Amino acid sequence: MPCLIALFALISPRLALFFVLLFTSWIDRAFDGWIVPILGFFLLPWTTLAYVVMWDVGTREVSGFEWFIVGLAFLVDLGSYFGGKRARRD
């Protein structure tokens, strides 16, 4: 299943999050409520996906190097917003 999710993540992180929600319980385990995953789906999909995967792959908490991966995903999300803004301006 993780390889299939990685393939969907290459296409779209939102598509990968959708399939993770449908076929696994990773999101339920990583988050207590439903508001943060919904906001993450719409605002920061790479960050949300990285957090969910790091939560499930690790020791059921995000710590150490796993935060580095989540931080990189956050930078990718920011880059997609600001890169699109710059492309529209040019």
From TrEMBL:
Q: Which residues cross the membrane?
A: 6-27, 34-55, 67-84
Q: Which domain of life is it from?
A: Bacteria
Q: Which UniProt keywords apply?
A: Membrane, Transmembrane, Transmembrane helix
Indicate what this protein is called per its UniProt record. Uncharacterized protein
- High-level lineage: Bacteria, Bacillati, Actinomycetota, Thermoleophilia, Solirubrobacterales
